[in-house]
Amino acid sequence: MRRIASRDPNALRAMYDKYSSMVYTIGLRVLGRPEEAEELVSEVFWELWDKSSRYDRSRAAPTTYLVTLARSRAIDRSRRKANRTTGTVELVEEISPVIGITPLEDAELDEQRERVREALKGLTPNHRQAIESAYYDGLSHTEIAEKLGKPLGTIKTYIRQGLIHLRDALRNE
Fold this sequence. Notes:
This protein has 173 residues and is mainly α.
């Protein structure tokens, strides 16, 4: 990230080569359409380059920052799209990786996905549904409360407790 901030195009290229498939996967999951996920990849890496000074390494690791940025931009796009249309976003369960990732990196990502899936299975149904609605569907806490018919405070508690459980489960592996 320091090299990107110092305008080293090779650093951006390396980051893109390593993480573009992850950003694409997030975009496809939230937006549901490959062409929109591809646009998201461009948008996220352009912002990473153009606004590299926003990154604060004391707050997050580079990959965490990139995932947060990708998720936020995907949700923004999804909400803009929802305001323009009345349709719903289809979620894609099976996502193929983008070219440019090595077999080892692909295997590592598969392993990470499986660990997260297993950790999600360990949550209560209420916690899992609230977290999936927030992170996969891009819903706000208020929208989740309406969807599930629960008070807003309860949804916030479900998400917080669920994330703590996920963190602990993933740390212990």
